[in-house]
Amino acid sequence: MLPMMVNIRNKKVIVIGGGKIAAKRIESLLRFQPNITVVSPVLEERLHDLVKSDVIEHIARSFHKSDVQGTFLVIAATDDTAVNQRVKESCQTNQLINIVDDPANSSFHFPAMYEKNEITIAVTTSGISPMLAKNLRDEFAAIVDGMDPEYLLFLKEVRHLVKEGQFTKEQKRILLKECLEEWYHSNSIQRSIFMEKILDLYYHPKKIKDKLGSSYN
User: Fold this and answer.
1) Residue 128 burial by CB count (10 A; 0-12/13-18/19+): exposed, middle or buried?
2) Which of 37, 55, 148, 169 is most exposed, with the fewest beta carbons within 10 Å of its own?
């Protein structure tokens, strides 16, 4: 299975089922701003609130095969295995589907996620052990929490200048690797020195060969 990030902003998402698991899946998707419709005779109270505030749409009935037509992403989240299987059989091969009680036959999985300061951590065990995925996420999250936000801004600025500057492919690779060195993580003085060097080379590309030396060629 190929791990990747998919932009679902304004994409049609259909969720079959209105219970606790469906609510959990919907809440994890809302931050990415898709157009979510829930098909279920009944809804969890927190989903009722989302419907009332027009955050999601609700079709108050059982699943029909036509519900999945034209949708980008499908979630089968009922407590009835037969219904969930019928949802899968109703989908086209080009549709993304997650079956909550059958991860092996799902085309995507919900990772354990963490977001902070433009860093997104997503860990999945492909449905084998969601608890392990959460534990690994928390370990990575602890590393991110310890990062200086100014360091992340520094990385962003360096990457922009290096990518736009008149550097060779190898020079870009080495410079982008260099700014990841540990002494830049918390040392603002070292970051400033490095940034001054990059800015000088960015605005005066004729200096690149002299300043970077043969090791960057």
Assistant:
1) exposed
2) 169
